[in-house]
């Protein structure tokens, strides 16, 4: 699935440093606003220990993790929706993504300039979210003018659209995100979805902390976590600078580094898992002598849709799937034993895939 998360935030909060870490793409990172002039795009491998577990029992030539597309977007400032800073160009870049990773500065450092002069993460969040609201309001008001014109000619659908857009405009004018504090019907969401609203996108707040606060125990992190909870969102804590250093290490050295920090997993692992949850995704696997591979599907996807992620023709030609869980492989040791013990399930077109399924698809021509 070609899903993308956009990394947003004020200038100098650590967006590009984080992007460097998760993609190892070497995006320029510097201590001045608007270092990121064009959005950097990277394909991020999603860490998944289950791949190594499968490989312990099935020999293969290649191991391929699931991936996530990440877009690093230039820092926004107050007035971006009116063209301040780099303006609407970068709001458009956010509009093309499916979810937002909102990086928030949760550390003090006199050597790193803060655009507003003081570190206040909740205030920073407010600046960004107000600009997203104003950008959406502009889109809604333009669509409303067109809908009102159609409604005057007694177009029934246009009249419904006017009602939805008027409600959305009032919500945004009060500074509220479309995803918060309002209930939208499926029909409402279809109408609003045509505008690709920024404030309807799911958001994950990323607390970028100092190297001496990797556990995220500062009041700054607590403030962001509380804000996220009040908006039905989640927050992840990491140190972008440490993650950038970890990304350059071998797995063995990384494990030692994490142990020295008193951490079980790196922040990027937590970020990837949280992003998958945010997007409503899960993973299934295919495994054989050629490759062991993790595939990304939406939660609730059925067998044919899962097969279609491998090749679009497979969805139409789907006949059935042989399926077992990674835990079955751990317990019984091989696919041969899984079959012998009757744990290899045969599933038809209505089967709803489960996270950690290992599947072999039978496809007709």
Biggest sheet strand line-up: 2-4-1-5-6-7
Task: Give the biggest sheet.
Answer: 6 strands, mixed
Oligomer: single chain
H-E order: EHEHEEHEHHHEHEHHHEEHHEHHEE
Which structural class best describes the helix and strand composition? Answer: alpha/beta
Query: How far is the N terminus from the C terminus?
Result: 24 Å
> Mean pLDDT, nearest integer?
85
User: Strand percentage, roughly?
Assistant: 15-25%
Alpha-carbon Rg, integer: 23 Å
Outline, from the CA principal axes?
flat
The number of strands is 12
Total number of helical segments? 14
Helical amount among residues, as a percent range? Answer: 40-55%
Low-confidence stretches: 25-37, 83-87
Question: What does this protein structure show overall?
Answer:
The model is unreliable at 25-37 and 83-87 (pLDDT under 50). Helix 7 links the parallel strand 6 (203-209) and strand 7. With 365 residues, this protein is of the alpha/beta class. The strands form three sheets. The chain has a six-stranded mixed beta sheet with strand order 2-4-1-5-6-7, with helices on both faces. Strands 3-9-8 form a three-stranded mixed beta sheet, sandwiched between helices. The chain has a three-stranded antiparallel beta sheet with strand order 11-10-12. It contains 14 helices and twelve strands. The longest helix is centred in the middle third of the chain and has 31 residues, at 121-151.
């Amino acid at each position: 699935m070609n899903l993308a998360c956009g990394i947003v935030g004020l200038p100098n909060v650590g967006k590009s440093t984080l992007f460097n870490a998760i993609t190892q793409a070497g995006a320029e990172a510097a201590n001045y606003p608007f270092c990121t002039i064009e959005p950097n795009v990277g394909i991020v491998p999603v860490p998944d220990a289950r791949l190594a577990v499968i490989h312990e029992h099935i020999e293969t030539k290649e191991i391929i993790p699931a991936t996530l597309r990440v877009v690093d977007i230039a820092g926004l400032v107050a007035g971006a929706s009116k063209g301040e800073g780099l303006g609407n160009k970068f709001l458009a870049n956010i509009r093309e993504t499916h979810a937002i990773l909102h990086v928030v500065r949760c550390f003090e450092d006199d050597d790193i300039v803060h655009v507003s002069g003081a570190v206040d993460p909740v205030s920073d969040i407010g600046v960004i979210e107000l600009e997203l609201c104003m950008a959406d309001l502009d889109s809604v008001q333009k669509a409303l003018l067109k809908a009102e014109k159609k409604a005057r000619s007694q177009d029934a659908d246009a009249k419904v659209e006017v009602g939805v857009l008027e409600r959305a405009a009032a919500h945004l004018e009060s500074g509220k995100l479309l995803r918060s504090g309002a209930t939208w019907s499926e029909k409402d969401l279809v109408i609003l979805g045509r505008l690709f609203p920024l404030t309807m996108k799911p958001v994950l707040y990323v607390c970028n902390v100092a190297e001496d606060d990797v556990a995220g125990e500062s009041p700054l992190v607590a403030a962001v976590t509380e804000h996220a909870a009040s908006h039905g969102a989640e927050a992840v804590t990491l140190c972008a600078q440490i993650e950038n250093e970890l990304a350059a290490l071998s797995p063995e050295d990384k494990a030692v580094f994490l142990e020295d920090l008193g951490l079980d997993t790196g922040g990027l692992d937590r970020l990837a898992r949280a992003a998958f949850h945010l997007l409503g995704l899960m993973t299934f696997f295919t495994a054989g002598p050629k490759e062991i591979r993790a595939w990304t599907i939406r939660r609730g996807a059925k067998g044919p849709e899962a097969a279609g992620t491998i090749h679009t023709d497979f969805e139409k030609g789907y006949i059935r799937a042989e399926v077992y869980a990674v835990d079955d492989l751990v317990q019984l040791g091989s696919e041969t034993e899984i079959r012998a013990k009757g744990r290899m399930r045969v599933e038809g077109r209505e089967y709803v895939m489960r996270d950690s399924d290992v599947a072999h698809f039978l496809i007709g021509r």
